[in-house]
Specification:
Elements: E1 7-13, H1 19-27, E2 46-52, E3 55-62, H2 69-77, H3 86-95, H4 104-114, E4 118-124, H5 131-141, E5 147-152, H6 161-170, E6 177-178, H7 188-199, H8 204-238, E7 240-244, H9 245-249, H10 251-279, H11 306-316, E8 327-330, H12 339-354, H13 358-365, E9 371-375, H14 378-396, H15 416-428, H16 450-473
Parallel strand pairs: 1-3, 1-4, 4-5, 5-6
Antiparallel strand pairs: 2-3, 7-9, 8-9
Helix pairs in contact: 2-5, 3-4, 7-8, 8-10, 8-14, 8-16, 10-14, 11-14, 12-13, 14-15, 14-16, 15-16
């Protein structure tokens, strides 16, 4: 066997310990196998590969749960030939009728284990340490393959992690990985492969390569996510909807126009959320209104809700101008100003009027005539940015085994250190206000301007900093 062949790993353990769940997370194959609360869901050995740079680096074998390890251990011990080594006893058992009868499930597991390089022993750390688990460990050790225990569900309050580590040490299994397939620790995958390298020294270079690949993939995925959020903010900041002064003066017409703008903003944000889901390997619809325990709010929230905007106003008070709930600016081209200058002045009007800047505000406001334009103000951009980055962080901490839907508050981080990068993020998108042509849906044949690309790149840098601030504040 050459070192370029995939490393073969059998994923074994008691029924319902989370073996399929672990594989969904490790391979980012959300549709692999079947994850269920019902015991014994996996009935056959199924293979799935982890691809690294387009090639299979690790081939996993998802095995059925061990159902009666105690009885099988006694069956093996009853063999007359006392000179048989433990692996030889296992092979003799596999040749007998019991391997196709009462111990069929166990036989599938042991047969797979004899043909791989190593095994992940998945343990539900919430389970009490019962005799059946001791029997399972003894059966696995009898196959003479390196075994790496993976403690699953260690975040649960009912975890018995200490008791499990004591048992595993008693059987010589001192290297143990803490992993939660529903909500894995950041970097847990990389640590898993590095720990496995201590057991498979001849495959260390390959496993180090897998760990390095996962680390680079994580960084690349985060950069792509930050860029996608930046695209959304620049797009929203560039939005303008023109309306005549006569039409704007009619309450019903004005409300209809505002509602249409709000819907456009929401649709853009939802498309960004769907793109983030796809980027992290989740299905559309995995984030919706169903909340996770201990988390309030909705991903499909109202960005224009008064409470959300009120909170954003307070947070933005230190450095980022805040306009009205839906900004109103004027096209001042008739007064000898270019569209860009008019937009910049219009933005100043929105901020000046809302903050009561006395004669200057009134003087600028008097220039509002003939054509009004609706824009998306800074408070809304702030709420959108917070909403998207919270989703991004939730996806980074979510395993592909999770069956609950994603939900989280759209509020900003609770500390000023986490809030400041969000405000900087909104400020970085401000140049887009002078370029309504930067809105991606403004025309059917839309071509991105180089200047817009530069702004998106700067906003993406701020988004990355905001993600790190949220990570630190968590």
């Amino acid at each position: 066997m050459t070192t370029t062949e995939p490393i073969r790993i059998a994923v074994v353990g008691h029924t319902n310990a989370g073996k399929t769940s672990l594989l969904r997370t490790l391979t980012r194959r959300v549709n692999f196998g079947e994850v269920s609360q019902q015991p014994g869901t996996t009935r056959h050995v199924e293979a799935v590969e982890l691809q690294v740079s387009g090639r299979a680096a690790v081939r996993f074998f998802d095995t059925p749960g061990l159902e009666d390890a105690v009885a099988l251990r006694e069956h093996l011990a009853a063999f007359d030939d006392k000179d048989l080594t433990p692996p030889e006893r296992v092979r003799r058992f596999l040749q007998g009728p019991e391997a196709h009868g009462v111990f069929e499930q166990e036989a599938k597991v042991l047969r797979a284990l004899l043909e791989v390089d190593a095994a992940f022993l998945v343990i539900d750390a919430r389970e009490p340490v019962l005799p059946k688990f001791r029997a399972e460990i003894e059966l696995l050790n009898a196959c003479a393959r390196p075994v790496l225990p993976v403690l699953n569900f260690v975040r649960d309050a009912a975890t018995r992690e200490a008791a499990w580590k004591e048992l595993l040490s008693a059987y010589g299994l001192h290297v143990v990985v803490r992993f939660d397939a529903a909500a894995p620790f950041v970097g847990a995958e990389r640590e898993l492969y590095r720990d496995l390298a201590t057991l498979l020294r001849d495959r260390r270079a390959q496993l180090d390569g897998v760990a390095a690949y996962l680390e680079a993939e994580f960084a690349q995925r985060r950069r792509a996510a930050a860029t996608r959020v930046a695209e959304l903010l620049v797009d929203a900041a560039a939005m303008r909807r023109s309306v005549s002064a006569v039409e704007f003066a009619v309450e019903s017409s004005r409300q209809r126009l505002i509602a249409a703008l709000q819907k456009d903003v929401f649709d853009k944000a939802q498309r960004c959320a769907d793109d983030l889901l796809a980027l992290y390997g989740f299905r559309e619809g995995d984030a919706d209104e169903a909340p996770l325990p201990m988390v309030e709010g909705r991903w499909t929230m109202d960005f224009f809700h008064p409470e959300a905007l009120k909170d954003a106003s307070v947070l933005l008070g230190k450095g980022v101008a805040v306009g009205a709930a839906v900004g109103v600016v004027a096209d001042l081209a008739l007064h000898g100003l270019s569209l860009g200058a008019g937009a910049a002045l219009g933005g100043a009007i929105g901020g000046a009027v809302s903050q009561g800047l006395g004669p200057l505000g009134r003087k600028l406001a008097n220039k509002l005539r003939d054509v009004h334009e609706l824009t998306v103000e800074d408070r809304v951009l702030f709420v959108i940015a917070s909403w998207q980055l919270k989703l991004l962080r939730a996806l980074e901490q979510r395993g592909h085994a999770a069956v609950d839907r994603i939900a989280a508050s759209a509020a900003a981080g609770s500390t000023e250190a986490a809030q400041r990068p969000l405000a900087e993020l909104v400020r970085a998108a401000q140049p887009a206000r002078s370029h309504p042509d930067w809105e991606s849906s403004a025309r059917l044949r839309w071509r991105e301007a180089p200047q817009r690309q530069d702004v998106v790149a700067r906003v993406a840098e701020r988004a990355a900093a905001a993600i790190e601030a949220l990570e630190t504040a968590a």
